[in-house]
Amino acid sequence: MSRFFSNQEVELLAPAGTFDIFKRVIHSGADAVYLGGKILNMRMHRKDYNLSNEEIKEAIEIAHTLDKKVYITVNNLFSQKDLKDAIAYLKFLEEVQPDALIIQDLSILEFVREQNITIPLHASVMMNVHNLETIHTLKNLGVTRVVASREMDLKTIKTLHSQTDMEFEYFTHGDMCIAHGSQCLYSGIILGKSSNRGLCMKPCRWSFTSKRNGLVYPTEYPMAVKDLSMYEYLPEMIDSGIVSFKIEGRMRNSDYLIDLINDYSDAINRYINDPISYDRKKASQRIYENRKRDLSTAYAFGKPGLKNINRRYEGTGKFYSHGKVFSKPIEEITLKKERITKIKNVLNIENPLSGDPILSIKVNSYKQAKIALEEGVDAIYLSGEVFEPNRPFSKEEILDLTKHKKHSKIYLCFPRMMYSRDFSNYTQLLKESNLGLDGLVVTNLGAIHPFKDLGLELIGDYCLNIYNQKSADFYKKQGLSTVTLSVETPLKDAKEMIIQSSIPVEMIVHGSPVVMYLEHDLYENTLLEPTKKEDNHHVDNHVLVLVDDKGYEHPIYRDREGRNHMTLYKDLCYLPFLKELHHIGVNRFRIEGCHYNTTQLKKVLRIYKKAIKDFAICEDLFDSLSSESMNFTLGAFQFD
User: Fold this and answer.
1) 322, 250 in Cβ contact below 8 A?
2) Are 263 and 361 in a shared domain?
3) Model-level pTM greater than 0.90?
4) Alpha helix stretches (DSSP H) within 274-326
5) Which residues contact residue 485 at a Cβ distance below 8 angstroms, ignoring those fewer than 6 apart?
6) Residue 318 CB contacts under 8 Å (≥ 6 apart), including other chains
7) Quick one: how far is CA 76 from the chain centroid?
8) Contact by Cβ (8 Å): 5, 272
9) What CATH number is given to the structural domain containing 251?
10) Segments forming the whole domain that contains residue 513
11) Around 58, how many Cα atoms within 13 Å sit in the side-chain half-sphere?
12) What is the pLDDT of residues 476-497, one digit of tens each?
């Protein structure tokens, strides 16, 4: 089944969560169906959902007899254990030959090469593809289609489409996420249920009020976004160059899906048949009446702002698909002595590895960087997304820092989101200037190739979500010298990954990493009428905090581009077991320090300088730190 408009293919791609649902959906107006097996996909909440291997094989056979396609979602991040399952699973899929695999974890590219897998590869929305450089890199690696970032507007897609022959897939209807693809780590860190591994517990849909500058704002559900609906804008999507129109809903029932699919299919057919007199509103009212959440066009035509926030049915705390409660606000897990002892036992190995330990810190300002230099920190990372009120690092500041760096090394970080302007700006700065930098901290796949010939060390940041040894190996081949372990990685996976990695692994051992990265600007909520006065309890009043139902305040920092960075409200702290981490092969210990004031920064740096000089005193140092009524969390290391 094929449809074309002006010689461009138009594919309606529908979801199926079970084999029974598939058997109905495949006979609907969909051109292709995407579905997951029992392992390695982004919908792993329900054991009765997803298809067995036998069902996958039969589904492909049924689809092909109807001249339709089946795409298999192998689209979550892999644990070390998953690597073993992945080989057998990919061999099975090679035998049954689906029409494509939708992937997130880049270890798959290694397996595809090693196992001679011939199935076409589509880059999942979880790869957060948003620039031409990433598209070129993926194409060179054998990827034939990208699911565009949810934050990408149609104008940008049209521009990119004119510059590449890569196929574009775009979400057209269904459940959306407030955070950038693969850049929400909070569910994994506080609940052990990773949103990047198909187990998101939706902390974004908790109820929050907002506070800033001593005022409280009545925001209710400020991160609960509306469902996407592009029904009335299919002509604009076709004009932008989108090939595949994707309906979200692998956890939805067949009755809901069939009506929706057929309405979209009918609209596509009518537009192809008669684009001049096309009625774009024909089924709009029915779609609206059958909605779960309210509807929005999300980022298709630019930043939607507060109008993208949903209230309909929010507050139930339940998944639509099965009615079970997803999560309720809980305290970030406090670091306790008993857990420290268990962690030490797990990390203990018979033949400790060695190497000179290095202390690194990510800083938010020139002032912080100067303090880090004065304290003799080994590696200083200059943030590419400086939190307000500070400004991005200037060329003059960078030159001054590198001029006085002595034995320290200084690295410039890229922003997580890099558009064409960012590549032009960094190219101008780095290729036309001798800044004295020692390296760059890479935040997205596309930023490796354009800068790898500068002679600078390239370190992969934690936002690359490097969760297993195989993906670390992949990035080593791309040109990175060090990778940072995902802060979602639980204890035993971290140990095995670090020991087996062929590339040095840096670990964030202290501070407050960004756990939710948003294009949406939560600071717009301060335009509402405040309800009362109240100061922030833990961070400066100029910082916006979201206050959950239990009173915990979640800091939201804003950068120059208006993007929001939610951090932990308790500092991560791995100080008590630095020695054990060093023994399994961690030689780079990193502090996320962008949120610290001068006094806090000096104190933390001095403690960790002492710690890596003499690992025997780590517990004593921790006792002195925790005796000051400072609250710490273990993050994902709370989970085995």
Assistant:
1) no
2) no
3) yes
4) 284-289
5) 462, 466, 467, 494, 497, 498, 505, 506, 507, 508
6) 324, 325, 326
7) 11
8) yes
9) 3.20.20.70
10) 350-522+566-638
11) 10
12) 999 999 999 999 999 999 999 9
